[in-house]
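Predict structure. Chain length: 477.
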Amino acid sequence: MKKQYNTRAILASLLICGAVGMFNETSLNIALTNLMEVFQISAATAQWLTTGFMLTLGILMPMSGLLLQTFSTRKLFLGSVMSLIAGTLIAALAFNFEMLMIARVLQAVGMGLLLPLMTNTILIVYPLEKRGAAMGLVALVIMVAPASGPTIGGLLIEYLTWHYIFWVSLPLLVIGLLIGFKYLENVTDVTKPRFDLLSILLSTIGFGGVVFGFSKAGEGADGWSSMVVITSIVIGLIALILFILRQNMSAPMLNLSVFKYPMYVVGLLLIMSCMLISMASTIILPMFLQTGTGLSVFITGLMLLPGSALSGIIQPYVGRLFDKYGPKWLVIPGLIILTVMLWFLTTISPTSSLAFIIALHIGLTMGIALIWTPAQTNGLNQLPPELYPHGTAVMNTLQQVGGAIGTAVAISILTGGMEKYLHTSSSPTEQTEIANAIAAGSHNVFLFAMVIALINLIMGFSIRRIVVNSERIRSIH
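Prediction complete.
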């Protein structure tokens, strides 16, 4: 008989801590200009508060499958949340850049452990027919918390100081820790696999190099032509190839046999593409609204809040619909909505109605919401239980890679489009022409994202529901 868990309390503790962690990932972005003045640092230095966070996640997440099998559920939970609390407290007290940088790394370590643990725990404590609803709540955290970060962060900076971004987060993390300490049980079998140092080294260089390279391409003035970017990506890709070859052993650090399961691969590609499109639109739309239409940072954040909030509200319902009807009747409409919204976004201009742009953003986030939970849950459902840690590790890692690629490619396309427009302009320094230039660059970004969505729409027709029949997993149309 399957053991009964207090699933509500377990889910509450994981979601509270996960939401705060994801909020902290993006809430500081809006304060970077302010921090440059306070700490007397350059933009390149300030960007490390974001790049360092993403880099730490990129390095740690591939190792999460190994860590999930090495340490008990409670130890990993307590370790991850204590790291989040320590990082948040240090950030709240930070009086220089170095102190804040250390805090960001500690926060990223906590999130790098917590996100895979959250997914893996849900796969174990929830039966197959109820996983969709639970994973819908996880998707809510992954999508809504970071999207609301800039808005809430902007509000706190407007009326208080940037320190309060972390002071507000701290009590919520403590509440999540206390609930988890009381109710979270050890749900995984600790198998103590061998630590292969070469695999860890290759994984660190590989994923770290790729994430760092794409992050720098999206930040630096030189973009893709920067030697740092080229070198990082090339070295990272070489290390990844060697890492993949190295995993052909009896006890691999990351079991790549998860790629033998077709619905897992389809789900993984859909999730990675959604992350790429989401990150691209998250960075381009605010830039367009501020430079193209002259809105303030705070008003921009408020404009993007309805889409994030509504997508969050429907996530649990999407999960329940998945449990009832399977993935296809959600994923296909979601991809159609996503494609149509991106097509309309290629037509926006500085004179476009703000209500029209808000409506498009709502449609965009709703489309992603219909895809995310069904694709992720259905893909993970096809894996046998012993591959859950590896499946969640691969999926979480490639989400970060997809986010880094989305950001870098979006900035690159936007910059190229703006330069091309201004090159043919008779008055390139006028504000109206700069606004038109960023609109032209944004059109190119959304066109690129629409092509990705169309490719995913074609792939989406191959998705099939995964069900359990006796003791084996099979797929049905």
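Summary: The two ends are 30 Å apart (CA to CA).
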